[in-house]
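Bumping my old thread because nobody answered last time. Still need a sequence for this structure:
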């Protein structure tokens, strides 16, 4: 494997319950033991999330269920859900996020509340993923995001839990590279998974950008190959990933790899990864 492919080697992948059959179809294209996250989206229930985790495990991958703090009704619900993830899919890692609701439906306001609950250790969780926002968050001030990141670092480290940071997807490498540099300067050495979109139509990418609160200036859209006059065109992360390969320096930016958000296109994303690795392996 060339150093150019090192960024993509160790990549992770994200699905929803509805992508399970699609993942089965392309499972041979993905590296064994890939971390596959299961998003906690509002129109799916726990049964769908559990079935997805079980399939991910059966296919030889590591299931990484998302836990959305604000969408949980009670501590008992979280306790039961974690027990089920362990029993149906041997889950030992989770991605903990606050979630999009403006008002929490139950007792957990944010991901720190889940980390503090003690339930992770109770269920044998050893690795935790948390979110990072190189371009900020529409509802959370940058100062708060940074303080919370440092608090999570302190709490997770003190609890003896390994953790990594997955970034919100982005169409622009510049702010992501800058943000990684700032984190490293602040002494945060955790592995970072850079969120990148899989290949999808311009229409799909813009719809998900809206759903997830990700902005895209005209300049950034043009650089990524997104034209609002050509909504049916497909745009892939080729140039974005090439820029990361060109500019990331392991001695300065530490452990960094890619996290793919396929936005419904699990097959297309898996093929993109296979083709990318094939074209970089000998270079
Ligand atoms: N990056 C990802 O893959 C995903 C991101 N999200 C987004 O995550 C956001 C924050 O999650 P974390 O980074 O875990 O934050 P967090 O749990 O670390 O919270 C940081 C601070 O922001 C506040 N906050 C969190 N969510 C909020 C919301 N929806 N509205 C207003 N204030 C909020 C919290 O009260 C806390 O003060 C969610 O709002 C959502 O937009 C949701 C699912 C997946
Ligand atoms: N703010 C925010 N919320 C999230 O839930 C989220 C992020 N950001 N960033 C990255 C990932 C992407 N995730 C998502 C978000 C929504 C769907 C979703 O709603 N899917 C719908 C289809 C929506 C559509 O096609 O318009 C579905 O039914 O699968 C899937 C994955 C979860 N994550």
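Sorry it took so long. Here it is:
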């Amino acid at each position: 494997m060339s150093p150019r492919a090192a960024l993509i080697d160790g990549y992770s992948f994200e699905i929803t319950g509805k992508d399970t059959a699609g993942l089965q179809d392309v499972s041979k294209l993905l590296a064994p033991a890939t971390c596959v996250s299961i998003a906690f989206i509002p129109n799916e229930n726990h049964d769908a999330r559990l079935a997805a985790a079980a399939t991910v495990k059966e296919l030889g991958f590591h299931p990484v269920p998302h836990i959305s703090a604000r969408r949980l009704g009670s501590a008992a619900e979280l306790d039961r859900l974690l027990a089920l993830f362990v029993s149906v899919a041997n889950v030992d890692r989770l991605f903990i996020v606050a979630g999009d609701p403006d008002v929490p439906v139950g007792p957990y306001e944010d991901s720190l509340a889940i980390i503090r609950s003690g339930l992770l250790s109770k269920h044998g969780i050893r690795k935790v993923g948390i979110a990072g926002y190189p371009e900020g968050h529409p509802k959370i001030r940058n100062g708060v995001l940074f303080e919370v990141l440092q608090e999570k670092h302190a709490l997770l480290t003190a609890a003896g839990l390994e953790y990594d940071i997955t970034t919100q997807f982005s169409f622009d490498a510049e702010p992501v590279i800058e943000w990684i540099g700032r984190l490293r300067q602040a002494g945060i050495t955790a592995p970072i998974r850079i969120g990148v979109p899989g290949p999808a139509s311009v229409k799909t990418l813009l719809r998900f950008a809206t759903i997830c609160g990700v902005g895209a200036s005209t300049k950034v859209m043009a650089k990524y190959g997104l034209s609002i006059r050509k909504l049916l065109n497909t745009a892939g992360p080729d140039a974005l990933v090439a820029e990361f390969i060109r500019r990331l320096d392991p001695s300065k930016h530490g452990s960094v790899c890619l996290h793919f958000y396929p936005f419904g296109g699990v097959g297309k994303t898996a093929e993109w990864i296979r083709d990318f690795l094939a074209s970089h392996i000998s270079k």
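The chain has a mean pLDDT of 95. Let me know if any region looks off to you.
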